[in-house]
Amino acid sequence: VHPNSNDYNLMWTGSHLKPYLLRSLTDIQKVNHFPRSYELTRKDRLYKNVSRMQLAHGFKTFHILPQTFILPTEYQDFCNTYSKDRGPWIVKPVASSRGRGVYLINNPNQIVLEDNILVSRYISNPLLIDDFKFDVRLYVLVTSYDPLVIYLYEEGLARFATVRYDQTSKNIKNQFMHLTNYSVNKKSGDYVSCDDPEVEDYGNKWSMSAMLRYLKQEGRDTAALMANVEDLIIKTVVSAELTIATACKTFLSHRGSCFELYGFDVLIDDTLKPWLLEVNLSPSLACDAPLDLKIKASMLSDMFTLVGFVCQDPGQRSSRAIYHSSESVRRSPYQKLQRPRPLSASDAEMKNPMPASREKATGRQGSSVLGLSMEEIKVLRRVREENERRGGFIRIFPTPLTWDLYGSFLEHKTSMNYMLATRLFQDRAGLNGRLDARLEAVDSHALFYERKLVSLELRKRRRCHGKARAARARAAGTSEPTKLSLKSDTEGEEEEEVDASEEEELARVVGSLSDTQVKSKPKLSDAVKTTCKEKLPKTLDKKTRDGGDPCLQKTDSESQFNLLQVLQKHGNLSKVQARRAFSAYLQHVQLRLMKEVGDQIQNPAWAAKEDEQMELVVRFLKRAASNLQHSLRMLLPSRRLGLNDRRRILAHQLGEFIICYNKVT
Predict the structure, then answer these.
(1) 0.90 exceeded by pTM
(2) Rounded distance, CA 43 to CA 198, Å?
């Protein structure tokens, strides 16, 4: 619509809205900024808010920012500190972005005194990868400040400097060494970009998950690191919660009118402590590289799905204007208007609060809203529905653990936060004092941050294939097998599958053997049968030990099948059957690698072909291992080793992958 039009569902803007625009928002309109969110995104306001929390709750508790001074007001304090610690220090304008106006100093005389300059202690011991400094861009979504609801996206960007880090003062003016902003480093002649979105650990911009997988391989505790990052994010948002929540109550007529995506820039030091550099009001959504597009497109898609929009014809709205205006006079100014019909996922909850798949939980759901006002019921249902639509976003506040840890820090004393925590987590058993439960909660998110992100295009293809399979199943009069992986109450995970191209590559390896090794090749149907036996529980094995074949018995999700017969009849494999067949396929490759080669190793042509096929297996393992839900460290053989040693090591690693693949799928 035209920028001056009022007939919109979403207003996406790069700046704050004027109070009169906020007050004019209807119950079906949303805007992507909260009033006064500059309390987080202006560096001076952020520093003052965090300093206030340090005074109230202890310096160590809120030690998330490097030591900072605002000049010229605190110039004398800075000079006194400088006399004890000569730095270096970093100077930043309080309201700039993209590295503009940022420079390092090692003497106060080097500062150009202007209004609103921020001077912070420079983190001189950053964590390095291949001797390069980097920071991490994280995407944080807040959907409400009263009650406070915070989500963190599972994927982010690690942005590297373009010159190797050197702590000596002679390089203090080299921005390409000390600043990690993409806007700065893309101007460097040493900047390296990557054109393949599936290669996430090459060049000057990595995915956050690739960075975490690298650190994990180096023996670093990435679960603790990300727990500390979540801690930093929650404390940062909590520090501004009072001011922003108060502004929402003052300027907004309806709850749910605002949401906000923040860009948190975090630097990690060599002790794995994360430091907050800044919070960006409107993080860049530009896609200068395929990896940008992969991450940002998925993140935006999941964000809009989570937030939920009421899609209404503007022409219908005008006919309801008189009703709204007369009705709003009688209502509380901060209470949502009732809607005559559900218009989208976000408001369908009013008419149908529980989907058909959740009808069994009616008793628990019904009791969970007893004693609540209509406004509280709406808020509770909205938060629950958001969480079910969250996609790749992870709700980090409130959770049972984070409510216990940070609930007391909330300064906006309303009943909504307490209501939300007590109603969402009715089944929790006092997490305070339970170390094992705390550690379990810390580790629960680590897998999400470390797994490789599935692109938006692939997710769409999978949905289309799933719908097509369901349609074929209905046409054939059969039903889809029960899913083996279920979402938990706190976190859900989209199934990760091995990429089809990787399976085709491996097919070439096995297919090329058919001409020379037919005699030693076991039947594929026998291999599937073996896999089936391995997967059966021991209790089932006991029942069939007296001569019955357990694979001929019907298991919970699948019955025994003959792969060759299914394919010859042009039939379709179910998801479980396909996975079992692929697992048997991999076992065949492993058996071949374990087989003695004899005199063939002396044949250069055979050795070259074997080398090529082993390289395909290595490439498959490198890519497929990162797609598993469970972390699997691949120690692949060096080309310097002899052929027999490489075959043996590769067979062992393939066996480890098969075990993990079977568990996951």
Answers:
(1) no
(2) 35
